[in-house]
């Protein structure tokens, strides 16, 4: 299973691969081996940790709850102007 999130605006994505230990050798020797050089990149990890700090310290989850109605209203207004390009606005 691969888990990924662009925590810093997508500039430094953080990715984690979860797999059974018995697959370790196959992953290192197979076609996926070319991508293993990306693991444990200190810059990406530092960026992810900094992004998580901001998320928690600035309580961005709570801000989303307050901003959502305004964003949704704005998205619906834009969709109403461009009905030929926008089929629906998710709730």
Question: Layout of helices and strands, plus pairs?
Answer:
Elements: E1 2-5, E2 14-17, H1 24-29, H2 42-57, H3 60-81
Antiparallel strand pairs: 1-2
Concise overview:
The chain has 91 residues and is mainly alpha-helical. It is built from three helices and two strands, in the order ββααα.
Task: Give a verbal description of the structure.
With 91 residues, the protein is mainly α. The chain has 2 domains: 2-57, no CATH class; 59-91. It has helices at residues 24-29, 42-57, 60-81; strands at 2-5, 14-17. It has a two-stranded antiparallel ribbon with strand order 1-2. A hairpin with an 8-residue loop joins strand 1 and strand 2 (14-17). It is elongated. The two termini are 28 Å apart.
What's the total count of β strands? 2
SSE sequence, one letter per element: EEHHH
| Radius of gyration over all CA atoms, rounded | 20 Å
How big a fraction of the residues is strand? 5-15%
The structural domain count equals 2
Mean pLDDT equals 78
Number of helices: 3
Q: How far apart are the first and last residues' alpha carbons, in Å?
A: 28 Å
- Strand order across the biggest sheet? 1-2
The main sheet comes to: 2 strands, antiparallel
Overall morphology = elongated
Low-confidence stretches: none
Structural class: mainly alpha
- Share of helical residues: 40-55%
């Amino acid at each position: 299973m691969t888990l990924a999130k662009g925590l810093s605006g997508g500039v430094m994505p953080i990715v984690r691969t979860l797999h059974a230990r018995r697959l370790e050798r196959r992953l290192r020797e197979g076609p996926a081996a070319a991508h293993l050089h990306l693991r444990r990149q200190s810059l990406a990890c530092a960026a992810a940790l900094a992004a998580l700090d901001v998320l928690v310290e600035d309580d961005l989850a709570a801000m989303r709850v307050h901003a959502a109605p305004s964003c949704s209203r704005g998205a619906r207004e834009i969709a109403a102007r461009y009905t030929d390009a926008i089929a629906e606005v998710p709730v």
